[in-house]
């Protein structure tokens, strides 16, 4: 697969300006050129950039990182994961190395990296500073056809597995005295990583959770609400959709479940344009959600 310098910038987090400097000063990359003299890079050069970025954020000088062979880079990167680094560099290190290994479908390495990040940053910290920015970068590349959809699905699948495992470890923390939350995605939504994180956060805060997951028909939702009588509903809208359609769905939920608080998160471009009935609340940021579910002291 071929990548423009803009693609490399989006996927690695390294500015195009720095990529050009590393290329010119340290001969880190040897791009090919189109007939119009535009640079383009292949998979090997993308992987090398991600490795160099990982070493840089681990504290190595760029001049040294660029001079290393692929084998030397791999050895150093393997050793660096257990070391303590400043938070920002640590996060960038994990991002670059998870993406690098996801590109070659190295499941064991991706799992180990996420596990290490969980240990160092916690599940929530990993989501905030590693998983979310990483998925943003991967999503941009996928939209530009510079990242194969199978690679994005591979990475998302592992993240989902890790979140399910984290949720399983905190099931006993639910308290009968806490509110019951019903979590779901609308029938046309299937990206549930944010919903899984919400399930984890609620459970660790002691709340009770019923997790329905993705693509829940409205009739199934009605049946579950009648059967379980939850205090709160939480769902995500991430797809780009006509505002009228989003408004109609929100109004339907609000009128059907009048006695339930309904919380919504997701695509700001869509959600920012709708009117919220009195029992519907927009969780615009993660801290908004943290504040709502935090125990009252």
Automatic annotation (TrEMBL):
<keyword id="KW-0805">Transcription regulation</keyword>
<keyword id="KW-0238">DNA-binding</keyword>
<dbReference type="Pfam" id="PF13411">
    <property type="entry name" value="MerR_1"/>
</dbReference>
<dbReference type="InterPro" id="IPR036724">
    <property type="entry name" value="Cobalamin-bd_sf"/>
</dbReference>
<protein>
    <submittedName>
        <fullName>DNA-binding transcriptional regulator, MerR family</fullName>
    </submittedName>
</protein>
<dbReference type="InterPro" id="IPR000551">
    <property type="entry name" value="MerR-type_HTH_dom"/>
</dbReference>
<keyword id="KW-0804">Transcription</keyword>
<keyword id="KW-0678">Repressor</keyword>
<feature type="domain" description="HTH merR-type">
    <location>
        <begin position="2"/>
        <end position="71"/>
    </location>
</feature>
<dbReference type="GO" id="GO:0003677">
    <property type="term" value="F:DNA binding"/>
</dbReference>
<dbReference type="GO" id="GO:0046872">
    <property type="term" value="F:metal ion binding"/>
</dbReference>
<dbReference type="InterPro" id="IPR047057">
    <property type="entry name" value="MerR_fam"/>
</dbReference>
<dbReference type="GO" id="GO:0031419">
    <property type="term" value="F:cobalamin binding"/>
</dbReference>
<dbReference type="InterPro" id="IPR009061">
    <property type="entry name" value="DNA-bd_dom_put_sf"/>
</dbReference>
<dbReference type="GO" id="GO:0003700">
    <property type="term" value="F:DNA-binding transcription factor activity"/>
</dbReference>
<dbReference type="InterPro" id="IPR036594">
    <property type="entry name" value="Meth_synthase_dom"/>
</dbReference>
């Amino acid at each position: 697969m071929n990548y423009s310098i803009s693609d490399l910038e989006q996927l690695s987090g390294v500015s195009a300006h720095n990529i050009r400097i590393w290329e010119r000063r340290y001969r880190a990359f040897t791009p090919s050129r189109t007939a119009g003299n535009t640079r383009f890079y292949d998979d090997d050069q993308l992987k090398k950039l991600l490795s160099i970025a990982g070493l840089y954020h681990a504290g190595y000088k760029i001049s040294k990182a660029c001079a290393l062979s692929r084998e030397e880079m791999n050895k150093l990167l393997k050793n660096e994961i257990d070391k303590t680094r400043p938070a920002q560099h640590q996060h960038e290190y994990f991002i670059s190395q998870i993406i690098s290994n996801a590109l070659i479908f190295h499941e064991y390495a991706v799992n180990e990296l996420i596990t290490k990040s969980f240990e160092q940053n916690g599940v929530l910290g990993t989501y905030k500073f590693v998983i979310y920015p990483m998925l943003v970068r991967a999503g941009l590349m996928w939209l530009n056809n510079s990242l194969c959809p199978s690679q994005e699905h591979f990475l998302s699948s592992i993240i989902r597995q890790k979140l399910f495992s984290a949720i399983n470890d905190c099931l006993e923390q639910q308290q009968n005295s806490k509110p019951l939350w019903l979590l779901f995605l609308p029938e046309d939504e299937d990206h549930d990583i944010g919903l899984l994180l919400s399930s984890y956060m609620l459970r660790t805060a002691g709340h009770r959770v019923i997790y329905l997951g993705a693509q829940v028909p409205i009739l199934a939702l009605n049946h579950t609400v009648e059967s379980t009588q939850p205090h709160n509903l939480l769902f995500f809208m991430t797809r780009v959709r006509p505002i009228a359609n989003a408004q109609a769905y929100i109004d339907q939920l609000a009128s059907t479940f009048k006695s339930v608080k309904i919380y919504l998160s997701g695509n700001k471009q869509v959600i920012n344009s709708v009117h919220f009935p009195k029992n519907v609340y927009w969780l615009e940021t993660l801290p908004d959600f943290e504040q709502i579910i935090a125990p009252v002291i």
